[in-house]
Amino acid sequence: MFAPRTTAWPLVALFTAGYLAPYLLPTVVGRLDSGLPLSPTQAGATGSALLLSSASAGFLLASRVERLGARRLARTGLVLAFLGYGTAALAQPVWAVVPSVLVGGFGSGTATAVAATRIAAQPDPHRTTALGLLSVSALAGAVYLTVPHLGPGHGLPLAAIALTALAVWPSTARLATAGTPSRQGWASSRLPHRRPGTTLAACMLFWSLAQNSLWGVSGRIGLTQAHLTEATVGVVFAVALGAGLLGVTGAGALGPRLGRALPVGAGTVLIAACIALSASATDLTTFATGEIAWNALYPIVLSYVIGLAASLDPRGRWAVLVGSASALGTAAGPLTGSVLSAQAGFPVMGAVLAAGLLVVAVPMTAVALGRRAPATVEVTEGVEAVEIVEIPLDTAAAGPAAPGRLTPAS
Known about the structure:
two-stranded antiparallel ribbon; 410 residues; single chain; mainly alpha
C-alpha cells in the first residue's frame, strides 16, 4: 500500500516568514516613499538594501546550516526579523529605519537559507516549495487587502513581516526532526554539478532582477501611469497574488509530469510578455491583466527552478546558493527599476527587462533539460520511504551535469 505524503509544515512556515518581505516589496517601498522624507529612488535603494542583506545571509550560510544547527539558525533569523522590522515599523527618523530594515533583511535571509536547505532534502522538494509559495502568496494577499484601510505611514507592512516572524517561532521546535536530510549521506563533501549550478545561479540573478525591477515600481505604475488609487492598486495586487495561489496549486498538483524544461523555459517567455504589458499600462484593465497574469506565472516557474536547484545537490547547497543569487537579483531590482523608469519611463523599462528575460530563458532551459526529477515510493508496512535514484536521460552522456551522477565536482 502507498502511504499519503506528509508535509514538513515547519519548513513551510519558515519559508513563509523568509519570503514575505520580497512579496511585500511594492508596498514597503511605496510606504517608505510616502511616509518618510525619501525620494522614490532613495526608497527603492532602501528596498534593495533590505534584499541585499537577505541575500548576504544566504551566501554566508549556504554550507553551514547543518553544522551550526537548523533550529538555532532559524530562531536567530526569526529574532532578527522580528526586532529589525519591528523597530523599523516603530521608528520615524530615516537613520533609525534604514539600519533596522537591514537587520530584518538579514533575519529573513537566514530563515530562507534554513528552509531551502531542509526543503532540498525532502523526498518531494517541489511539493514543499509549492506549499511554501502558496502560504506566502495567501498571507501577502491578505496584507495587500488590509493595509490600505488601516491608515498611512511606513510601519504597517513592516509590522506585518515582524509579526509573521513572531508567529512562526513556535514551529521551530520541530526542526530537529522536520526535513532531516535523508540523502545527506549520498553527497560528496565537494559541491557537485558546478557548471549547471553556476549557470542556473547566474541566470537566476538576472531573472529575479527583472521580476523585482517591475515589482518594486508596480505600485507607482498603478498610481501615476494608470491613475489608480492606492486601494484599487491593493486590490489588484491581492487578486494577482490570488492568481498566484491558483498557479502554485496547479504546479503542485502537476509536480514533475511536465518535466522542468517546459515550465522554466516557456514560463519565462510568458513572464517577459507580462512584464512588458504591465509596464506599459495606462488604465486599470491593462494594469490588472499584466499584474495578474504575471503573478500567476511567477510562482509556478519559481517553484520549478527551486526544485531544479535542489536536484543538483541533495545537501541543499545549490538550493541555497541559487536562492541567494536570486535574492541578490531581487535586491538590485527596486533600485534598477527606479533608475530605469526615471531615466527612460516605465514602458521602456519593461521592454528592456522583457528582452533580458528572453535571453536568460535559453541557458535556464538547457540546465533543466539536463536534469530529471526523481521518483519516490513510500510504503506503510513498517518500511521507511525508499527513494529511486535519478536516472540519466542519456546513459551515454559523460558530462557532470547528467542526472544521477554523484560526482564530487563538475
